[in-house]
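Lecture notes, unit on protein representations.

Consider one protein chain, 145 amino acids long.
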Amino acid sequence: MIKRTLAVAIFSIVLLGAGCTSSAQESISSRVLLDKTGQTILSENFSYPVTSEPQVSSSIVTLPPGSQTGLHLHEAPMYAYILQGTLEVTYLVEGVEETKIYQEGEAIMEGLDTPHNGRNTTKSPVKVLVVNLGSPDLENTVKLE
């Protein structure tokens, strides 16, 4: 009887341990979104602000169908990840309009000091995670309209 109880206990522990290990390994995953880029989406080199007071801020921007951000620019590096929908952004690069389309699941480093306007031309909301890497001396977003 003791041998049988001991065997059942060991078998149960092995099954329980295997289940925990398998579950933990399956739940952890990683997908690279943006890998060590040193350039913005417009192929501009960027650097972090030189400051003794760095500031990181983040937000989720939601654009309803048919809406737009208005013409603006960013003085500090900005990372963006499209959480939902499709975003159309028109940049004014050296006097010439350049339009890019960003899809759900895309990550970018936004253009620096380049006027641009984001538009949702679809019938569904667009949600964008925005992370600004700034300082007290730089504006994350400067409205131009």
